[in-house]
Amino acid sequence: MSHINVTINGRQYRMACEEGQEARLLNLAESFEARITSLRGKFGEIGDARLTVMAALTVCDELIDATHRARALEEELHALRDIRVVAADRARATQTAVAKALNAAADRIEKTTQVLNRTIGGGVAIG
User: Fold this and answer.
1) How far apart are the first and last CA of the chain?
2) What is the DSSP track for 18-46?
3) Per-residue model confidence as pLDDT tens digits over 15-33
4) Burial class (CB in 10 A: 0-12, 13-18, 19+), 38
5) What φ, ψ does residue 12 adopt, rounded to 5°?
6) Residue 46: pLDDT band by 50, 70, 90 thresholds?
7) Average pLDDT in the 61-90 region?
8) Is 90 exceeded by the pLDDT of residue 45?
9) Where are the alpha helices (DSSP H) in 2-127?
């Protein structure tokens, strides 16, 4: 377990984190500090606790919005996967139908060639 110092709202806090997560924790603290600074710029000095709560609420609001967007994207992804499966099935069916049609056409051409060869008799063979 690592320990690092972060600064939030002008105060230092010693925080524990998993090994290798130090930079992430510092980035999180810097992001939160930036929110507090932004709110201080908008509302002035309204008290440290109030600024911290407001910053936490804005983070929670963004998290809820992001969660809703992620769920909507997951639903869209599932719908697109379903559409892809249907399209793949339709493509396979089309491919099978085209192959059957081509085989049937080849059979008709072969039969027509045989009839023509018999009609012409011993003359020139077609095909």
Assistant:
1) 82
2) -TT-HHHHHHHHHHHHHHHHHHHHHH-S-
3) 999 999 999 999 999 999 9
4) middle
5) -90, 135
6) confident
7) 97
8) no
9) 22-43, 48-120
Contact (CB, 8 A) for 111 and 119: no
- Amino acid found at 28: L
* Tokens at 65, concatenated: 């919005």
φ and ψ at residue 92, rounded to 5 degrees: -65, -40
- Angle (nearest 5°) at CA 39 between 8 and 44: 105
Domain extents for the chain?
2-119
- Please work out, in degrees rounded to the nearest 5, the angle formed at the alpha carbon of residue 53 by the alpha carbons of 51 and 58: 95
Residues 97 and 6: their CA atoms lie apart, in Å, by 67
Six-digit token pair at 83? 């559409």
